Amino acid sequence: MTPQANNPQVEENYYQILEVQKTASLVEIRYAYEGKLEETQLEAFAAYSLLPEDETEEKLLHFSQAFMTLANPIARAKYDDELQQETVSVEMQPVTKKEHLTKIKKSVRVKTKTVPLPLLPPKKAKAEKEIEIKKSVIKNIVEETHAERLGNYQKLSAKNELAEESLEEFYSTFKTHGGKLSYNGTILQQIRKIKSVTLEELAQITCIRKTYLRAIEDENFSKFTSEIYLKGYLLCYIEALQLPKEQVLSDYVLLYKNSF
Amino acid sequence: MEKKIWAIGGGKGGVGKSYVAGNLGILLAQKGHNVVLADLDLGGANLHTWLGVSNPIKGITEFIERDIPDIKKLLIPTDMSGLRLISGAKDGVEIANMKHTQKRRFVTALRQLDADYIVIDLGAGTAYNTVDFFLLADTQIIIVIPEPTSIENAYRFLKNSFYRQILHNSEKFRIKSTVKNILRKDNPFNINTPKQLIAYMNQLGGNAAVFIEEQQQLFMPSIILNQVRSEKEKKIGVAMEKACLKYFNLNVNISGYLDFDETVRQSVIDREPLAKNSLESVPVQQLSIICEKLLKEEKEGTKKNNLLSQLAS
């Protein structure tokens, strides 16, 4: 009788949640995430007054969780290991041939379109072999960018650790002034600067464009077409800088809501 | 040709019901049909102003109060051939609370009018009378604009219409008391959406299950998404179809989109309906497409009007 009863949710893995292949590149994952944000927003809008708000929130949290794990090479590798173990014990779900094929097709097409350009070698003349060549090139790029991102992550975690003390100092200034800390764009920016993380680094880590990250700090809300986008991006910002999720989210979203 | 009634409603005010109703009426008349536009915006009728007919002296009020017992005498000619108007109520209060017998008399008279198409402009709101007139139509159209308020009202309108239809039609199946019991105000079975109602009645089995399946098939309103300002907003139409299926278990059908257009407002100010003179304009072109689609669906449709037979009997 309840709406959920008709829709038994099988526990989906992060790849299934974002509807990407296990071999998906970071760019693909980002596109998939942005696509999911848009879809959620549209659904929340079109089903206004029907869809319970916490259902949207829950969905959003699912997507951002999946995205943040898959966008982080360390977390992703760990997650892949866990999945591997699970699939050994549990039988794989049957996938029809056609479904499988279209999925592969799709992923190949997207890959060739979205892979970063600088590492591409000069174009080969033979059109016949082109697809094969592209595949191997992609593999190289994926591996190289993977290594690069791994480095970025390690750098960021080091910065997060290093800044612990100075951050505590920063927080304590609020306490001595007797005020309660309420997160806004300026404070987020200050924290980022204390951790000496540049916007460029943050953009690389989160896979979110710099303009959006800057808009978060500038409280330039017109950049976000809806609350859902804002939350989606903000969650990544929070995760990257290891901020207290609940508080930042509620403080900041309140700012956003009050701006109308 | 069988007479067809099209009703245009949608819950919220100011979303373009009169605009769509009026222009659809004109477009149908231009196709050579004999059209009567009926202004049933009970309480706020102004289709006459919109069509450039100034201050009609007679309207539905006179018919209901039996000052003019012959509905034909209410017909006001317009300056467009094939298009006549029945003006709404001037003093809305009593009409908005029309009694069942009065409603039945009016519907019967409406059906007897000499016309191919009767296009009804319903008012805002989801009151029983508005919903009843919506349900008696062969083609049921809901106008929505991409705003939460309008979307919310549209769902409320859909829900009320569906419940009302079920209540009306249950008599034939001799399960009226069952339905009434289910839809009691104290909500004994905790039913909050049409989906839950459908599921519950299916559980009951027998007559109730057959009945509810038939009612689901009978209830297929169309949605027109008006004042669309971007490609993204266009997607809301399909998303609403999905939402209706998912949350209501009801088949709602998107008939088309109308882009936001400044000339529309100007046409209302000028009291010059767009379909009358600006045939080439984008709004009229889009309306034409919708009109064609509705005509096609009507031709193919197997929809029968159960409520009418009930009201008219």
Offer a few descriptive terms.
heterodimer; A: 260 residues; mainly alpha; 12 helices; 0% strand; globular; disordered N terminus; B: 313 residues; Rossmann fold; eight-stranded mixed sheet; 15 helices; 8 strands
How would you describe what is shown here?
The complex is a heterodimer of chains A (260) and B (313). With 260 residues, chain A is mainly α. Chain A is built from 12 helices and no strands. Chain A has helices spanning 14-18, 26-46, 53-71, 73-89, 97-114, 130-162, 164-176, 185-194, 199-206, 210-218, 227-240, 245-258. In chain A, helix 2 (26-46) runs antiparallel to helix 11, helix 3 (53-71) packs across helix 11 (227-240) and helix 11 (227-240) packs antiparallel against helix 12 (245-258). Chain A is globular, with a radius of gyration of 21 Å. Chain B is an alpha/beta fold. Chain B contains 15 helices and 8 strands. Chain B has helices at 17-30, 47-50, 60-64, 92-96, 100-112, 128-135, 148-169, 176-182, 194-204, 206-218, 231-248, 262-269, 274-277, 282-300, 306-312; strands at 4-9, 35-40, 76-77, 83-86, 117-122, 139-144, 222-228, 253-259. Chain B starts with a strand and ends with a helix. At the A-B interface, helix 2 of A face helix 7, helix 9 and helix 11 of B.
Mean pLDDT rating of chain B:
86
- The amount of beta strand of chain B, in percent, is 5-15%
Low-pLDDT regions of chain B: 302-313
Strand content of chain A is under 5%
Distance between the termini of chain A: 38 Å
**Got a strand count of chain A?**
0
Instruction: Give average pLDDT of chain A, whole number.
Output: 78
- Total helices of chain A: the number is 12
Shape of chain B: globular
Largest interface: A-B, 12 and 22 residues
